[in-house]
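User: Predict structure, ligand zinc ion.
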Amino acid sequence: MIIDTHSHMYESEYENAEKVIQKCKDNDIKIILNGIDKKSNLEVLELSKKYDNVYAAIGYDHSVVDEITEEDIGLLEEQIKDNKVTAIGEIGLDYYWIKDNKEKQKTLFRKMLNLAEKYNLPIIVHSRDAVQDVYDIVKEYNVIGSIHCYSGSKEMAREFIKIGFYIGIDGPITYKNNKKQREMIKEIDINHILVETDSPYLAPEGKRGEKNTPLNIIYIIDEIAQELNMSEEKIIEITTNNAKELFNI
Ligand SMILES: [Zn+2]
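Assistant: Predicted complex:
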């Protein structure tokens, strides 16, 4: 069994998403689908009820800071009580695209962390050009989770691991110019590495330009196996156990 710990394989992002989910089921791939707003959270919940290989991560990310009301936070609080919800995600901070609303982003992020703490759920974090703020904020809470699509330094990865976090690795590790990340994974504890696709985004090398799917998770596993000089089977065993432990699957 392989667990893709971060995907957006639902209809508003991918045509025929359910066909792909079924194919994943046939290939013993479980998927943690991540919502980012009210609409996608509903899609994720629905698919998690329909398919036993789908788990739900729901939350409000940085892109919806201007639209989320207190009522919406209340709605999310009701939704996370569903037993297929394994995490609060995708949540986080992104200073790459939007720089002028940092305080608003932090406020929403803290609201998500409050829920995670209250319901004892792990978080799935998006962090772009914001790693220090993400670290400082999550450290204030009694939460653990995954830093999805991690692209920072090995030093920072180790700091996250020290406070119980996991490092999500996806397509970019296969990119020719990404030697830095390939070096990074050799320097951190493999018991804190997760594999993910972020599909339909970030297709791995050889598939770039195509819409990504969780079926491509094997390319990421293969790359990690090569870098660490281990078998694919061993990487699958370790990363699946890591995901099971973090997400209580
Ligand atoms: Zn994502």
